[in-house]
TrEMBL record:
The keyword tRNA processing does not apply. Pfam families: MFS_1. GO terms for molecular function: transmembrane transporter activity. It comes from the Bacteria. GO terms for cellular component: plasma membrane. The lineage of its organism: Bacteria, Bacillati, Bacillota, Bacilli, Lactobacillales. PROSITE patterns: MFS (PS50850). It is a multi-pass membrane protein. The chain crosses the membrane at residues 12-33, 53-75, 96-117, 148-169, 176-194, 221-247, 259-279, 291-310, 317-337, 374-395. This is Multidrug resistance efflux pump. Gene3D superfamilies: MFS general substrate transporter like domains. It is found in: Cell membrane. InterPro entries: MFS, MFS_dom, MFS_trans_sf, Tet-R_TetA/multi-R_MdtG-like.
Amino acid sequence: MTKKAVGERQAVWRKSFLILWLGCFITALGYSMTMPFISLYLDTLGHFSKWELNLYSGIAFSVTYFSQAIVSPFWGNLADRKGRKLMCLRASGVMAFTIFFVGMAQSVLMVIILRLLQGAFSGYINNATALMAGETPHQKSGQVMGNLMTANVTGTLLGPLFGGIIAGVVGYRMTFFITGILMGLVFILTYFNVTEHFTPIPAKKIKPISRVFHELSQPQLIIVMFITTLLVQSSLLSISPIISLLVRQLMNGQGNFSLISGIVAAMPGFGTLLLASRIGHLMDKIGPERVLVTGLMATAIIFVPMFFVTAPWQLGLLRFLLGLSSAAMLPAVQTILTLDVPSEAFGRVFSYNQSFQAAGGVAGPMVGSLVSSLFSYEAVFLVTAIFIAVDLLLVTRVMRKAS
């Protein structure tokens, strides 16, 4: 390949990266505009006891991940045959409609059904990551994965703030309407501006995933990365569906707890945003494995003092520190997958990783809802600390064997 051709290829993948970064940002922004307030929104659709509201909030939050976990391998197989850009378009297009109609729901059941459909067709960020993994030179993989993380984190950071303001001024429904419109914009931008150098592969020529794993040099490491994704996601989302209820409890039901909930929910984003791009450079320098272990260790420690919070500012401060530690975890997992898996299997391997991430999205909120109903909202943090500690043991053990 000539120097001119290399330069043109680099310009193309950088343009695609910028659009996908914006798409991931809007996807995360729209998602986080609505999710911290899902329990408060459901509370407007009927008269529920604390147990019922916790249960419905957990179901509405996790049902998206449930359907996502089931269908992700199918979409991953299709992505390896048809390309990842098509999967980004499928995800953003369908999500635009499902999220918009959640804002028109008249019952909890309607919200649950729409979020079930949303999960079945979601996956923009995952496929954008797989697309860039195939387009980016390996020596820049950590940097690109880290920068894509900043899109996710920045959207997650600003979403609760915007959502809290919108919900406080014009009501919860408007946040869903705005999110649906934004996802329609993502579809248009991706369709016209993203280029993927992909040659369709006939179904008969695709290696079975069992053969792909058999040819890997460290298949156990990949499996543990899947488990890590599940446990990390479970831990990070365990409090999410009920965080607004915890904040309302800490404020004794007084004040603008919608806005405060948004700020508290956004605090991990501030921490992650500070480190995400630096983490990418660090992974390219010292390796993603060491970065992952450090992040898991710090996260397990930070969860423990959350059990003792007595005011929203304390919870917000600890969640900020959580953002600093968690900046390392999922990007490190994705970088390990990128470096240890052949490019022709990216779609399927990343989809399996998404399935484990989605399973964590189911388990975390349901465990959080159950623990908070049986004990207290604060008890959820001790359970999540145990999840992370278990994963740390698994990761360190498999890495010793691999070294």
